[in-house]
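Troubleshooting log. The previous structure file for this entry was overwritten by mistake, so regenerating from the original sequence record. Sequence copied from the archived sheet and checked twice against the printout by T.R.
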Amino acid sequence: MSILSGNEIQRAVEDGRIAIDPYDVSLINPVSVDLRLGSSVRMYENTPGRGPLDCRDQASLQAYGYSEITDDGLVLWPGHLYLMHTLERVSTHYFVPILDGKSSIGRLGIQVHMTAGFGDPGFDGQYTLEVTTVYPVRVYAGMRFCQMRFHMIAGEVALYDGSYTGEASTG
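Regenerated output below.
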């Protein structure tokens, strides 16, 4: 399957096949669009006494902390899982969006997502990032953090029909 070029991403935004809000044409790359880091953060921490995350126990899966990234930034620490989000809301009914970390972020030892880099056609919202780091590093809301490419779809499209819609798809 083919990947949209930067010029085709721009055309798709202009004709409504892809929605990116806020949209900044300067974020378009040769085959992707950069997405920036949003300001809300939920955190898990591997601390003594907290106990393990238990897939059958919803209470254990609640993130322990919530924060907003201030103008001074936020230091990410090894041993923590940060649930962050893109600043941009992205939606398309026509393509499969794929989220990847930027190489400049990877060179800082930051992993942008664990497994959820694949989007569904019809999803409309900010993308959740499952962020970890190898080294302590300070990040800032609004910085270029990841990139999204768009793949063509072969066959009939079934649009996203999951639980992350409306308010649940922001932040």
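The longest strand covers residues 80-92. Archived copy saved in two places this time.
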